[in-house]
Write a structure and sequence with these properties.
Protein name: Ig-like domain-containing protein
Shape: globular
Largest sheet: 6 strands, mixed
CATH topology: Immunoglobulin-like
Structural class: mainly beta
Number of strands: 11
Keywords: Adaptive immunity, Immunity, Immunoglobulin
Organism: Haplochromis burtoni (Burton's mouthbrooder)
Domain Ig-like: 13-115
Pfam families: V-set
Radius of gyration: 14 Å
CATH architecture: Sandwich
Strand content: over 45%
CATH class: Mainly Beta
Helix content: under 10%
Strand order of the largest sheet: 4-1-11-6-7-8
Number of domains: 1
Length: 115
């Protein structure tokens, strides 16, 4: 199983979301992926930062996001297998996935969502 991460920049305000390197994991293992953000604050209530993924041949699937005020929403089908952490002091978000299965093989994207 391979998990690939892609980083990207958006807009003229130089908003950057830099993800960790690609990870290859086996079914049953746990992994933690990171995303370092710059150009905005994780405590800004106008934005949420979270994760989406795309498995081969499928559409994007929303995983989780957390607003700057701390409110969080996540995909109920995935909530028992993942943890989402936000650390505003280091401008970092983490996605911890446990007990990986073959169907978790995907490209995972860190994403910012406006209000």
């Amino acid at each position: 199983m391979e998990i690939m991460f892609i980083s990207f920049s958006t807009g003229v305000y130089s908003i950057d979301l830099i993800q960790s390197d690609s990870i290859v994991a086996q079914p049953g293992q746990s992994v933690t992926i990171t995303c370092q953000v710059s150009g905005y604050s994780l405590t800004d209530r106008n934005y949420a930062t979270g994760w989406i993924r795309q498995s081969e041949g499928k559409t994007l699937e929303w995983i989780v996001h957390r607003w700057g005020n701390g409110d969080m929403a996540q995909n109920n089908a995935l909530k028992n297998k993942l943890l989402h952490h936000t650390y505003s002091s280091t401008s970092s978000v983490y996605l911890e996935m446990n007990s990986l299965k073959t169907e978790d093989s995907a490209v995972y994207y860190c994403a910012r969502r406006p209000q």
